[in-house]
Amino acid sequence: MGIAALVMAPIVVLAGLAAQGSGGLWSHLATNVLPTALHDTILLLLGVGILVSAIGTGTAWLVSAYEFPGRRALSWALLLPLSVPTYIIAYTYLDILHPIGPVQTALRAVLGIASPRDFRLPDIRSMGGCILLLSFVLYPYVYLTTRAMFQTQAAGLIEAARVLGTRKVALFFRVALPLAHPAIAVGVSLALMEALNDIGASEFLGVRTLSVSIYTTWITRSDLPGAAQIALVMLLVVIMLVMAERWARRHRRYAASTKRSHPLKRVILKGPAAAGAIVLCVIPIVLGFVGPAVYLVSESIKRVRFGGISSSIIRELLNTITVSFIATLAVVCLGLVVAYAARLERGRRLSAISLRVASLGYAIPGTVLAIGMLPLITGLDAVLDDIVQSIWNVPLRLWLLGTGSGLVIAYTVRFMAISIGGIEAGFTRVPASLDDASRTLGKSAGSTLRQVHFPLIRPAVAAAALLVFVDVMKELPVTLLLRPLNFETLATHLYGEAARGTYEEAAIAALLIVAAGIIPVVVLGRADQKT
Amino acid sequence: MMPTTLLRRGIQIALLAGSLGVSSGAAFSQEINLYTTREPGLIKTLIDAFTQAKGVKVNTIFVKDGLAERVEAEGDKSPADVLMTVDIGNLIDLVDKKLTQPVKSSLLDSAIPANLRGANGEWFTLSMRARVLYAAKDLDLTAFTYEDLADPKWKGKVCIRSGQHPYNTAMIAAYLAHHGAAKTETWLKGLKANLARKAGGGDREVARDILGGICEIGVGNSYYVGLMRSGNGGPDQKKWGEAIKVVLPTFEGGGTQVNVSGAAVARNAPNKAAAISFLEFLVSDAAQKIYAEANYEYPVKAGVAADPLIAALGNLKVDNLNLTEIAKNRKEASLLAEKVGFDN
């Protein structure tokens, strides 16, 4: 409950702000802003939803159900696009595909056309372009959650179906897909929330989503109430999404037998079938990771030759890793507590609701969340200051904001959904009979969690931690607004450079964000190859 | 979960986070805290020069959006001394929210023309940039008006950044002041109909898109021309800058629209004296020269020359509109841009 309250607080602040808005403005929003914003948002979510489900589930199935050359490498490489933030993929593809970029220049050379005025490919700055680019980097959310499902508790049923002679295609659509539904739902909803609250890529690609409208309403007109009103509309969209997903699987239970689950036995593919599987797995990796990475490396090399590396970048890298690590620790611990509390009080409405509420932070655009958090953090600061003043007579001033603790609190609110969602999905696989047995044998709730659940849900916790770490590292709007003085992360550095258009310098920071993002991907890849 | 547990955990997290790298070097006897919406790279040279000259350390935070909200939330405990913005709208916003304080300084008053600072010293202009026309090299263009942007002969040939970006909002606001709401709406619709691609990206993309054959003319800031052509942004940008020619447009019967970067002393500045000396330094000849040569902006102080790359763009005849009037029209300009679906 306490954690849900923490997440609720910025929403309450938002509602308060929205209430200050004038009615006249609302009619402007309703006629001139919301129709386009809703249209663009729904189209974007539909497009991204379909693409990430297809790519994520398809590749997860290939690497789980079949054996083909390179499968092991591909199965972790498919996670790599996760390390590329949406704003970076937008920048890089605009460069790569621009009429004077490498692709079109080469194309013109091949076709013997002299000027880009005579021949151009369609502009990437469009709805279609935005859907594609976001999907390239967001599908790993689906891949990660779905693969875990295929490899663990769905394995038994899938194998039973195989033994019964179900054909390949039917096996996927009639057995594997329905079994993986909860995992796909978790993955897709994470991907959609990212798409929904993205501002960098959407704005850059000319797509006017709700988030972009919130941003411009606030920034250009200093109209925070108006922005808060749009934000609440958006929250409504999210709540509807979440409810639709819950409703779709209202009657199902997914816990497998208590037996230790064993991995799915893979069918060996040969010849054209193996080649096909390899190609299908390689395409998303190339588009979502290799392309941008190669481009960033070449830009960085250009930059280093041109102006060297700025010395501050190492410090920024350290800042980024430190703050991401601390925030991940906080988010995962709290996520564990919330998910477990919900399990303990199974059936009680209150805890189910607070579980949902605690996830909302992820769906609020970062900029808006940051604004909502500001008065809370400074309010806490004032209380802390008073306490310390009265006891030790030392002025603390703005301690939370000044040390970066406020930033960590905001990250926690923002990314709670990832850890709760992932850990909860892990818990659903543990049958309730285990809890009952453990409690009957006299174990407390705490030691049941430590000794019974934790070993079983460790992969889910690790996956959640990975996602949170990478997300915090890429996070921009909250970091920009709530960080202490003289505190730069790679993302803020990148943003500063991009804001004044020194892209080559920005390329180094972008490359480091991507590179640092790879580390947890590799760690996770290793961890699950051991199992 | 019990609140006490939450509190305990919160404190643990906070303590851990307290170890984050916020170095406070003790080498300087004095410090000031600068909150800026200006990219740190652009003002670093100025800050370094100030620290060297006066021995005052400058701590910075680049708050692109939400500067006013942050200072407001921090209230009387705010460590902010100087607030710096790149747009007149944001600056006036700070003043309106009573987040700045009046400053009396004969140095500032004599360096900055009266129409470019608050009457009681609540804000000061530090540098200026013009909203200019980028055009394909082979176009036969020597004069241009902002009104011309809506001329149907440019249909499908114009590139511009978002109609909600402060630079464009200021331009539309100036148009409002010149022509009134009805004419401005017609003009915006015409301009929108002329766009070759969706409004978006940055000013430099306009030059790049002209080179890429996507459009023939576009609107951008004067200082980007200097940044691109100087080669300081790298060899690619030099190509973009050289692919365009630049015309200083005017309003019919007026001059070229300029925006300003400026600063103010924060209301609760803990180091007020040092903050004022920082502002005074920024309008010194030496600092104004840095604004001109490192940032390719027009110096606000008379007698300091613009960079040769900028001077070569032509004689700047600044529009005679009052800056506060532009700031006042900002909201209406943004609503109009939304009404005509400028960014859709």
What does this structure look like?
The complex is a heterodimer of chains A (531) and B (344). Chain A is mainly alpha-helical and 531 residues long. In chain A, 78% of the residues lie in helices and 1% in strands. Chain A contains 22 helices and two strands. Chain A has a two-stranded parallel ribbon with strand order 1-2. Chain B has 344 residues and is α/β, with parallel strands linked by helices. Chain B has two domains: 27-128 and 259-309, D-Maltodextrin-Binding Protein, domain 2 (3-Layer(aba) Sandwich), CATH 3.40.190.10; 129-257 and 315-339, D-Maltodextrin-Binding Protein, domain 2. Chain B contains 14 helices and ten strands. Chain B has helices spanning 3-17, 40-54, 67-74, 88-96, 106-111, 166-179, 181-194, 203-211, 222-230, 235-242, 272-282, 285-295, 308-311, 323-339; strands spanning 30-36, 56-62, 82-85, 100-101, 124-136, 158-159, 217-221, 244-247, 258-266, 298-299. In chain B, strands 1, 2, 3, 4, 5, 6, 7, 8, 9 and 10 form a ten-stranded mixed beta sheet that branches. Chain B is globular, with a radius of gyration of 22 Å. Chain B starts with a helix and ends in a 5-residue tail after the last helix. The model of chain B is unreliable at 1-26 (pLDDT under 50). The interface between A and B is large, with 92 and 76 residues.
